[in-house]
Amino acid sequence: MTFFCKTFIGALTLFSFHAAANNTDKFDYLGLSLQHNSYDELNFSPQIDTSKLTPLDYSSSSSSIGFRGFVGHQFNRYIAMEAGVTSFGKGEFKVTEESTDSAGEVINNVLYSGTFKTLAGDIRAIGTYPLSDRLFLKAHVGILVWDNEFSYLSGNVSELNTQEVSDTGITLLTGLGIGYGFSKDFALSLDFEKTEIADITAQNISLSLLIRL
Fold it and tell me: Is 45 helix (H, G, I), strand (E, B) or coil?
């Protein structure tokens, strides 16, 4: 993990303690999100025609489940700020070979594998618009500071290997959502957001629990 990611997470932790210590105004909150992360045009074999790997079997996935923890401050009914840390769901690939063991059972041996994995921090401005006492619309814009590791298949059909690339960056993050407050202390929100990580478009659907302090 890069220095600036460590610094960001440390600052977020301090902000969390500050929010917990100054909760008399009831505008600070904590939250946890369950995310479905999907990646457009994620290619784990840029130089290889995987259809020619037979009898080997190639499989890949470009979506998975991730998590985000965050703290925030609601300034009024319409404006809030959040800072969060996200462990994005991994994209992954495997190249396997089918064989038979001494007992006659078929097993799949993993010969090559790799992932697209990301840890990120974000700061975002959030606009909210109440539709009723409990239901509200929301939109957000922010920056995402990410640290990515990408392992992919390289070489050629007759001589395969894997390569790993590490990258860091800062990209724009935008999203829309809808929320529902069950009480003055608890709310749920469903959000769709979009960003880029290592030149790959990431689309996230998040279900978040918000707890007011």
Answer: coil
Give the global pTM: 0.84
Tokens encoding 36? 């479905």
- pLDDT, tens digit (0-9, with 9 covering 90-100), for 177-213: 999 999 889 999 999 999 999 999 999 999 999 999 8
Beta carbons of 80 and 128 less than 8 angstroms apart: yes
Q: Does the CA dihedral 52-58-63-69 come out positive or negative?
A: negative
> Backbone phi, then psi, for 102, in 5-degree steps?
-65, -20
Residue 153 in tokens: 């298949």
Q: Three-state SS for 21?
A: helix
Measured CA to CA, the distance from residue 95 to residue 54 in angstroms comes to 10
**C-alpha dihedral over 181, 185, 186, 191, to 10 degrees?**
70
How many helices (H) does the chain have, and how many strands (E)?
1, 10
Q: What are phi and psi of 69, to 5 degrees?
A: -110, 145
Q: Is the dihedral of CA 116, 164, 172, 73 positive or negative?
A: positive
